[in-house]
Write a structure and sequence with these properties.
The chain has 180 residues and is of the alpha+beta class. The chain is built from five helices and six strands. Helix 1 crosses helix 3 and helix 2 packs across helix 3.
Amino acid sequence: MTLFRRHPAEEDLALFAGGELGPLARWRIEGHVNGCDRCRELVAEFFEARSRAMDLAELPALDWSAMASGVHARLAGAREHPAPVRLTWRPAWGAVVALVAVIVAGLYVSRLLEPPSQAVMLGATAGGVEVRVGDQQTLTLWNAAREATPVNWRVGPDAVSARYLDADTGQVTVNNVYAQ
């Protein structure tokens, strides 16, 4: 029985092969590897790669004092003759500045070209619900029985609600209109 519904991540299998997992994670992955040939092969490959890397980890004999004196000599030379600091203009910065300028100009022009906003007016009468933009009527929901129809309406800044009662049938018609 495996303890994972899916295969563990390759990173976890590599840590398992190196013996670098905690006891609970090691127990879970060990249970999965015992029942999964694919993961068992991956762990074997990781273990072999780790063994080869450890063989390469042996450092050759170096003259550390000669290396240190060479580093100190180069540092002393750098202090005596510091390299001049040059500020260079990189082409990438030019492209970024040009892109920002184009975006700012586009926003400015789009503000100039956008039509002036007109207020949306909502209203309700016994004849129906009306939506007007400026001085032009754009939408009217007519009440079928316009004469002698009791109406109850509420008008807000962005919505209107009208309820019409048909005196003959007793049915109520509700119109709700929202504007943005």
